[in-house]
User: What shape does this take?
Amino acid sequence: MLGNFVYSNPTRLYFGKDSLDNLSAELSKYGDRVLLVYGGGSIKKTGLYDKIVKILNECGKQVFEDGGVMPNPTVEKLYEGCRIARENNINFILAVGGGSVCDYSKALAVSINCKEDPWEKYYLKFEEPDCEIIPVGCVLTMVGTGSEMNGGSVITNHDTKLKIGHVFGEEVFPKFSILNPELTYTLPDYQMKAGFFDIMSHILEQYFSDTDDNTSDYIMEGLLRSLIHSSEIAVKNPTDYEARSNIMWIATWALNTLVAKGKTTDWMVHMIGQSIGAYTDATHGMTLSAVSLPYYRCIMPYGIEKFKRYAVNVWNVSAENKSDEEIASEGLAAMESWMKRIGLVMNISDLGVTEDMLEGIADGTFINEGGYKVLSRDEIIQILKESL
Ligand code: NZQ
Ligand code: ZN
Assistant: This one.
């Protein structure tokens, strides 16, 4: 049975090859002192930076820059961005990049006018913003996180070895996001594939929870089937527009709050993955691919019905003359073959994790209770060991 909920998503999306044409009209709605936020330079290489600056100039905006946002943005970078934004009295943030740039821009949005330390307030105490929030718009260049249409914002503190996400409310969602699948063609192969698994993981985190008959589960099975199909095509031909555009749209729907409505969710793969990220700074999607199978094999006995359904409805496993365990295991085996076929990282040792880090990674893992089994610390260590 679906629980009670409110569903509303304020982000306006512009999707397709010509979607950047809508940027001027959107910018005209917001302030004239714009902070242009971007990453380590890919947008300069691809020529997108020049296009965006031209549009901003044509709109008569005063442009201030905050480049160099790293994958897994850090708390130090957040402080630096606050300083730039305050010194220049900016009143709009334009994020051009992937999830890191978008997440970081949302963190800035709630931190610029914050009187307290934003890391402590939002990421350690999980308090909600009580200051003026600067509006954010996004031009997305990397697919996976869903950050373009949600309130998620993940920040890393390397000193304390903590990577923490705060899911902010609607007032922090991007006001608009421009989604042109062609802008993602220049992504390195590794990043593209990491994004594919990030999407899969977002769906599975929300799928493997609850035993009720939820419409969301049917939606998620459809999204998963489309993702599996399109990812196989995109890996062989990264400029296949049909596949890349489908994947971009799946990523948005996987984490724009819709499929979680009315049901519980798990998010344990992300909790373990984020702790690995805090230790290694590894690519987010690959931290998830490396631990997913050991985790799902660990919890499968506690959610056997759902794992059986996953095998049959998503991976076309035949249920004839087989026990529940056999069917469920075949589903995970099919997932494993797909992961290997598309070239995902399957072991945390490939991400730089060594045995001496396991205790610390387990200690940095937040334990959620929405999945089929509440993990003990020993079980987290066991999962990590199996992934070494
Ligand atoms: O920095 P640049 O030079 O732009 O290069 C980036 C970066 O090195 C590159 N890139 C992006 N678009 C490109 C491109 N290179 C060539 N052509 C393009 N079109 O790709 C690299 C990775 O980018 P990044 O933004 O870090 O990747 P992603 O989108 O996966 O974002 C990861 C961050 O998002 C967080 C993760 O934890 C991580 O910190 N997440 C955010 C979530 C949310 N807001 O809801 C949920 C997710 O689960 C996730 O935790
Ligand atoms: Zn993720």
